[in-house]
Amino acid sequence: MTLENPLPGAIGLSHITPYDWTATDGVRGGSPHMHTACTEAYVVTAGKGAVQTLSPQGYHHTPLEPGTIAWFSPGTVHRMINEDGLKVTVLMQNSGLPEAGDAVFTFPAEILADPERYAEAAALPAKEGPEAEKAARARRDLAIEGYLPIRDALRDGDPEPLRAFHAAAARLVSGRVAAWRARWRDGALAAAERTGAHLDALEKGDPTHLWQAAMNTTGPTRAAGCGMCGHRQEYEVPGVTLPA
Questions:
Q1: Apex CA 27: angle with CA 32 and CA 70, to 5°?
Q2: Residues β-bridged to residue 34
Q3: Which residues contact 48 (CB under 8 A, 6 or more apart)?
């Protein structure tokens, strides 16, 4: 089924306020993780912070301030840092897939190797409240435990722990790809093909599709849920389904 009136490019979005919890390395922020199929972008709207990234190019600490746009491709481990009231609008490829399944936390290797242990460690209570906050913090701390050795190895010029994490992540998500493919086909691919059809029509001087013009609005559907990087405000837009 082709989705009508998605956001441009069939992206998803949410607003993030990074966690203010201090980790074992003295840094306040969210859970390190990566996406295996999607690019994600940060549009900084308030405050001050940074994003720490791990990639084959090494470890980088990128400052974030209002007006900054930062984005990273699949395979980039990222950790959002909250220094002073940071607020970020997150743009997500493939109809919000990065928050709907395409994410792997940097848990220790023994957890990544066991799908059941991984799923248990990654899960949060369905109901918001103190228990969800506690579970999100424990999940963040477990991701930090696996993240720091990968970061330190990259700093020392050793990419193998990151390569091993990539391999473990690919094994974990392999069974989800069929559902992701359907989401991509009905979202981003359909949007690109629709533009192609519009261009074909315009080349012939055919304005028929212009009579399908429509205005759309939406508002927050979840104001302060626990996410990977922090508390997130979600939006309901066509073709975007985020986890409860």
A1: 55
A2: 104
A3: 63, 64, 65, 83, 84, 85, 86
Burial of 17 (0-12, 13-18, 19+ CB in 10 A): buried
pLDDT tens track for 55-87: 999 999 999 999 999 999 999 999 999 999 999
- pLDDT, tens digit (0-9, with 9 covering 90-100), for 158-200: 999 999 999 999 999 999 999 999 999 999 999 999 999 999 9
Q: Which two tokens stand for residue 186?
A: 């009905």
DSSP conformation letters of 62-77: EEE-TT-EEEE-TT-E
Contacts (Cβ under 8 Å, ≥6 apart) of 241: 95, 96, 100
| Degrees to nearest 5, angle at CA 179 with 98 and 106 | 40
Question: For 48, left (φ over 0), alpha (ψ -120 to 50), or beta?
Answer: beta
From the CB of residue 57, how many other CB atoms can be counted at a distance below 10 Å? Answer: 10
Return d(Cα 68, Cα 39) in angstroms, integer. Answer: 17
Per-residue tokens: 235: 């939006």
Q: Is 109 exposed, middle or buried (0-12, 13-18, 19+ CB in 10 A)?
A: middle
Which of 141, 121, 142 lies closest to 29 in space, CA to CA? 141
Helix axes 130-155, 115-122, angle to 10 degrees: 120
Instruction: Give the separation between CA 196 and CA 50, rounded to whole angstroms.
Output: 38
pTM of the model: 0.92
Count CB neighbours of 145 within 10 A: 16
